[in-house]
Design a protein that fits this description.
Elements (H helix, E strand, L loop, with lengths): L6 H9 L21 E2 L12 H15 L3 H4 L7 H13 L6 E4 L2 H12 L8 E5 L4 H13 L4 H4 E4 L10 H10 L4 E7 L11 H10 L3 E5 L18 E4 L13 E5 L1 H4 L41 H17 L1 H25 L6 E2 L12 E4 L5 H9 L2 E2 L1 E3 L3 E4 L8 H18 L2
Parallel strand pairs: 1-11, 3-4, 3-5, 5-6, 6-7
Antiparallel strand pairs: 2-8, 7-8, 9-10, 10-13, 12-13
Length: 428
C-alpha cells in the first residue's frame, strides 16, 4: 500500500474499511480533549457498549433468583464459562476441549507449570526471552527455586545481539540445541511486551519437541492480536489474559490452552479444585479428585459471573468481526503508523526517533514500540497532554497499538499531526 501523510488519504482509507462500523461499538474516553487517540489496547482494551447490558442482566438474575441463578437464570451460572469456550477457541485456533477461561494470567501459568515443568536432576533448564514481562520472569525464578534450583543456572535467557533490539530466531534455536540434554521447557511470550516482536511459535515448538522438551507460551499480547493455531502447531500449553486486545474489563479472568493429548492424561500431576472435578459427580462431594477431560480439568473454582459477562459481550464482537478480517486491517493500520513515524524521523532527524519493533508484518502484531532516546519521558508526557494515549516504558520507549476493532487511519494521521507540532516545539 502507498501511504500518504494527508487527512484526505486517512479518511479515504476509513471510508473503504469493511470494519469501520465496529468503532461505534466501543466507548472512547474523553479526558478533556476532543482529539483523543487511544493507542493503548495492548494494556487495556476499550469497553464494548454491550458490556453494561450483559453485566446488568446477571445483576438482575442475581436479584431475582439468588442462588437458583446457577441453574435457572437466562445463562445458568453453573455452566457459564462454557459460553466463552467456542469464541475463545476460534480466536486461539484450538479445539473447544483444549480451552477454558478461568483465574488470572500468572495464576494460570503457575498452575500449568505444576503439570508441565517437571524438572529432574539432569533436565531442568528453561529457555526464555530476555526482557520478558516481569511477572513471567518472577514466575520462572520462583518455580526454579521451588524445585530446588538456582534461577541463574536454570533459566537461560536469549537476548538480542549487541547493537540490536530484536531476538534472532536462529539464536533461540541454537540455544535449544546447545542445551538439548538439560532442557525441560521452552517458555516465551508469544509477542514480546516491550518490542512487540512476534515469535515463530510453531518453529519454537518443533525445536523444543525435537530435544524432548515441553513448549509453553504466555500469549497475553498475542491473543486477539495475531492469528493463532495452537492445536495445529502442537503447542503443549499456553495462557493469556483477556483485558488487553480482548477488551473484557480491567483485571478480568484469563484463559488457558492444553493440547488434547495432555487433556486426556489424567495421571498428569496438577493442583485440583472442585470445578476441575468430573462434573457428573461433582456434587456428590466425595474424596478423590477426578479431573475432567480437557482443559477444564485444570479449573479450581466456579466462574466469576460478572466478569465473564463482560468477556462474553466482547467475544461476541470478535466472533462477528473474525480474526482474518481483523488481521488484514491490522497490517494496513500498523503499516500506516510505521510510515508516519518514519516520516517524522526524516523531518526531524535531531529528534532521534526510531522503531524497535520488527518491520516485517509477519513478525509483529499491531503494537509499534518507538524509541525516543534523548527526549524520553518529556515527549511522552506532552503526547498524553495533547490527547495521544500511549504507554511509556523505561528507559525511553513509547508503546502504541492501533487496534483494528476500534482505531482508524484518521487516528494515526492525528497522531502524526500532533507529534509534528510537539517535535517542532522541541526544536525552538
Amino acid at each position: 500500500m502507498q501511504y500518504e501523510s494527508t487527512l484526505e488519504f486517512a479518511r479515504a482509507q476509513d471510508a473503504a474499511d469493511p470494519l469501520r462500523a465496529y468503532r461505534d461499538r466501543f466507548y472512547f474516553p474523553s479526558l478533556g480533549t476532543s482529539e483523543l487517540v487511544y493507542f493503548t489496547g495492548h494494556s487495556l482494551g476499550l469497553q464494548p457498549k454491550t458490556v453494561r447490558a450483559a453485566v446488568e442482566l446477571e445483576l438482575d438474575e442475581w436479584a431475582n433468583y439468588g442462588v437458583e441463578g446457577h441453574f435457572h437464570s437466562t445463562n445458568p451460572w453453573y455452566s457459564y464459562h462454557e459460553l466463552l469456550t467456542p469464541p475463545m477457541a476460534e480466536i486461539v485456533g484450538a479445539k473447544e476441549s483444549e480451552v477454558v477461561c478461568m483465574n488470572s494470567l500468572t495464576t494460570n501459568i503457575h498452575l500449568l507449570f505444576v503439570s508441565f515443568y517437571r524438572p529432574t536432576e539432569t533436565r531442568y533448564k528453561i529457555i526464555s526471552e530476555a526482557k520478558m514481562f516481569p511477572s513471567d520472569r518472577y514466575l520462572l525464578e520462583t518455580q526454579a527455586q521451588f524445585h530446588g534450583f538456582d534461577p541463574d543456572d536454570a533459566i537461560i535467557e536469549v537476548a538480542p545481539r549487541d547493537g540490536e533490539t530484536l531476538i534472532r530466531e536462529e539464536d533461540i534455536l541454537e540455544a535449544i540445541a546447545a542445551n538439548a540434554d538439560e532442557l525441560a521447557l521452552v517458555f516465551f511470550g508469544g509477542v514480546n511486551y516491550f518490542t512487540g516482536q512476534l515469535f515463530n511459535l510453531p518453529r519454537l515448538t518443533e525445536a523444543a519437541h525435537a530435544v524432548g522438551a515441553i513448549a509453553g507460551f504466555d500469549l497475553a499480547h498475542a491473543v486477539g492480536n495475531v492469528p493463532l493455531a495452537l492445536h495445529d502447531w502442537d503447542i503443549d500449553f499456553a495462557a493469556w489474559c483477556s483485558y488487553k486486545y480482548l477488551n473484557s474489563s480491567p483485571g478480568n479472568v484469563g484463559g488457558i490452552f492444553v493440547h488434547e493429548r495432555h487433556g486426556r492424561s489424567f495421571d498428569l500431576p496438577r493442583f485440583g479444585g472442585w470445578w476441575g472435578h468430573d462434573k457428573a459427580t461433582r456434587f456428590q462431594m466425595k474424596n478423590g479428585f477426578q479431573p475432567m477431560e480437557g482443559a477444564e480439568g485444570w479449573q479450581l473454582s466456579n466462574a466469576p459471573i460478572l466478569g465473564m459477562a463482560a468477556m462474553k459481550a466482547s467475544l461476541e464482537v470478535f466472533a462477528d468481526a473474525g480474526m482474518p478480517a481483523l488481521r488484514a486491517k491490522s497490517e494496513k493500520l500498523t503499516g500506516y503508523l510505521e510510515y508516519t513515524i518514519d516520516t517524522l524521523a526524516a523531518e526531524f532527524p535531531d529528534a532521534d526517533i526510531s522503531l524497535i519493533t520488527p518491520r516485517n508484518p509477519e513478525q509483529r502484531g499491531c503494537q509499534i514500540s518507538m524509541d525516543v532516546a534523548g527526549r524520553e519521558r518529556k515527549l511522552f508526557d506532552d503526547m498524553i497532554a495533547a490527547g495521544i494515549i500511549a504507554d511509556f516504558r523505561e528507559p525511553c520507549v513509547i508503546r502504541m497499538a492501533p487496534v483494528p476493532l476500534y482505531n482508524s487511519f484518521e487516528d494515526v494521521f492525528t497522531f502524526g499531526r500532533v507529534m509534528r507540532k510537539l517535535l517542532a516545539q522541541g526544536e525552538r
